[in-house]
Amino acid sequence: MYNFITKKMLLLHKLLCVYILHTVYSFLLKMLYDMKKGYLLFVLLFAYASVFAQTKDNKWSVGLHANSTHYKGDLGNEFLKFNDFDPGLSLSAGYYLSATFDIMAKLGWSHVDFLDKDGTYGFNQKGYADGIGFYKQQGWSFNGNLWNISTNLKLKLNNGWFLKEEATVAPFFIGGVGLTRIKQISTREKIYGEKTHSNFALYYGAGINFRLSERLNIVFEAGIYNPMTDVYDGIDEETVTYENVSEDNDKFLQYSLGVSYNLGKKKDADEDGIADRKDKCPNTPAGVAVDEDGCPIDTDGDGIPDYQDQCPNVPGTVLGCPDRDGDNIADKNDKCPDVKGLEALDGCPDSDGDGVIDSEDKCPDTPKRVRVDSKGCPVDSDGDGIANYLDKCPTVAGIASNNGCPKKAEQPVYFDRVIYFNFGKNYVRRAEIKKLNEVITQMQENTTLSANVSGYTDSIGSDGINQRLSERRANAVKKYLVSKGIDANRISTVGYGENSPVATNATPAGRAENRRAEIRIRIK
Prior knowledge:
The strands form 2 sheets. The protein has an 8-stranded antiparallel barrel with strand order 1-3-4-5-6-7-8-9. It is built from 6 helices and 13 strands. It is α+β, with helices and mostly antiparallel strands. It starts with a helix and ends with a strand. Helix content is 17%, strand content 27%.
């Protein structure tokens, strides 16, 4: 649709350009009707080609202009008076320097004439014309062909500061230097013959450029040629002896209307039809449709060009498609379009990150990085109800109290005390009473407990003596416990003689440690 509308607009634009050119050429033909056939043929041929203006891409230009030139000098002033049309023709060539400046060369011809009927040089005005003789009925006049050539600097206001460079209406100022030459006959020369004058000249003026397309322009310009001399009208201080002769230079105001043509070819790196200098997207891929700025067309205006937009007719943020939940997954690919989710799960959420979407997750709070089953619950390989990540024995069924491992056999817990005896004696020393009282306390607090008392000796003496001594020592401990209220049936005794020493019998200190009775109570 866009391309169809664009083609129609271009067709209308071309028709408008043809109409404007027809109007300009009609004016030129009317002006040139009385000129020689050679001039007319050249104008027509040149005008056929001269329809465009130079740009940054196309720096050289040529132009054709129709002129009308008005005179100001000793005979009078016809500036800004349009009752006399003096035809002319000029050619121009320009070179683009920058957005602000062009350099212009102009070559032109104009017919000029003037008759002073009622001024200083008019007949019967008591002035110079009254003494001319048989020419006095005409007043003083001159006519001739004025040629000019100049080099000018053109200051453009469509330079990006005042107006855009592509502005439709673009004012400008122009000025420069050159030469002028006139071949004329005045009232004086009617007696003495034609005169030719030439001199250095200044040119200054202004104009408006009407931009019809990227290349097509119509130019209107008004400027003054100042030949820096006062002789072009046949009157100056030397040729006419009259006290009121003006010392000012003769001047010529020239109006021109014309067209120009760009000789170059615009640079278009991506070949999208938009010149690089205007192309805001100079690297557009080949074959991609672009807008007037050279950028790919974006039908839905979502910032993603159509050629990359998977939903070119609906604004969107993900490859040009809508994304209601903002999870960077297009709604058309999102199985949970109203809840943020993961791409790997087709746009559905997974709060605990176990790979099972929330709507199907039976254990939605599983810790991170824990392996789960298809229902989203932690794997329990041995089926003991304890997840592998908590189970220290994940391949063997166990119990929670043992961290998933099988229940261990209980290890007995004992309450032990050691009572020491003097050499060869079996009575309880006062220093050992505290230990015995601790045993009594244990057995009183738990009447289910029983005690086992083992007696021992050092190695001095015979085996028989030591055996009997060890038994008496065990019984001495039992006797004390019973005397404090402990049931004798809860106490067993045994003697081991000099067996099972806990220290060496080679030293007194070691033997002292071996003269003992060991009390053991199994707590559980």
